[in-house]
Amino acid sequence: MREEYLMDGKVEPTNEGYAIAKITGLKLCEMYRRQYNADFISVMPCNIFGYNDNYDPIASHVVPSLIRKIHIAKNQNAPYVELWGSGNARREFLFSEDLANVCVFVMNTYSETGFLNIGMGKDITIQNMAELIREIVGFKGDIRFDPSKPDGMPQKLMDVSRITALGWRYTTDLAEGLQKTYAYYLTNQCSGRV
């Protein structure tokens, strides 16, 4: 998805509220910039994960949901863990420290009207993500998918060519970010500190 594709079609129905809220924030900054000649800058990140994530069984996003479910399955010595969808949907993920880093980078180097896509520029299937998390968690059981549950959009991948042309690139690869996130989960979430 390139930046200029924003609002050139319908939003995905299972994400409608979230998508509209995100678009509203971007447009609000654009209008403030225009009306007040203020240096408002927006970024559009891909899926973010990391420390202090939301592990709620109902309201969590992909990575914390997978970490929680797979961790519980491991602790219960379950033969398998069941996940929503087919596992074929593709998503792009970025570690939260890299998002913080790029926001500072953008504030110091960018002052244009348009927002910037932020991400790694590569995606992974939910099935492959679940398998990577299974390995990090140390769960020996199977991963099963329930295709009667929604997948959402088939693919969410950002075109990050504008931000990379400005000289920024993520520094935390997916596996490293997941290992850090799981370690944080074990220390804080499982201990009741969060």
Please tell me about this protein's structure.
The protein is α/β, with parallel strands linked by helices. Helix content is 42%, strand content 14%. The strands form four sheets. Strands 7-4-9 form a three-stranded mixed sheet. The longest helix is centred in the first third of the chain and has 21 residues, at 16-36.
Outline the fold blueprint.
Elements: H1 16-36, E1 43-45, E2 47-49, H2 62-75, E3 80-84, E4 90-91, E5 93-95, H3 96-109, E6 116-118, E7 124-125, H4 126-137, E8 142-146, E9 155-156, H5 161-165, H6 174-189
Parallel strand pairs: 1-6, 2-5, 3-8, 4-9
Antiparallel strand pairs: 4-7
Helix pairs in contact: 2-4, 4-6
Structural key phrases:
194 residues; alpha/beta; three-stranded mixed β-sheet; two-stranded parallel sheet; 6 helices; 9 strands; 42% helix; globular
